Amino acid sequence: MKKTLLSIVTMAILTTSVSANANVMTSLQSGINNAQTQGIQSMNQSDQNVYFKPALTKEIMVELEVPQIVKFSKSNGDELNLIKLSLDSAMNSYKATENIRVESNGDSKVRIGLGKPFDLVSNNGSKIPSTPVVTIGNTMLNGAANVGLGGGTAMFPLTNSVLDTTLNIIVKGNGLKSTEVYTGTLNLVIETAA
């Protein structure tokens, strides 16, 4: 008898529990359905109070570096690779003048100097007795000295980022031997200056 009573009580508890659980599940499902229906309706309406927040804001630095561009050429745009000095018998010297152009990308001035000492040497190794004089426009360039640091350079203003001027080389003719050929490399350093 006790077993039967215990079985009846257990069945009653299980039945009540299953029934209550079913009611809770039905209520939950009904609530979910209502929320979905209302959410869809709300999304279909033009609700201006709905805001979306980004999950992440990332700031990235962007840098642009304009390269220093300097061009050196003859005034007609051709490259200047060779200068031949001609005799000026009235001055007892050898000289040459070239029309040159220096262009820069947006700078207002350039510095020009000798990168190395400029000498002319004969094919047998002897130097000319006098130092060649190099001028840009009317400005004489002195011997090379710390060109990258501004020493031994001359400053030239640019007009619309361009300098049109002359390159002049003069060598005194005293002590030069006839039929000798003298050669050397003129090393110009050109830098932009703010």
Automatic annotation (TrEMBL):
Signal peptide positions on this chain: 1-22
Keywords: Signal
Source species, domain of life: Bacteria
Protein name as annotated: Alpha-related fimbriae minor subunit 1
Organism: Yersinia intermedia
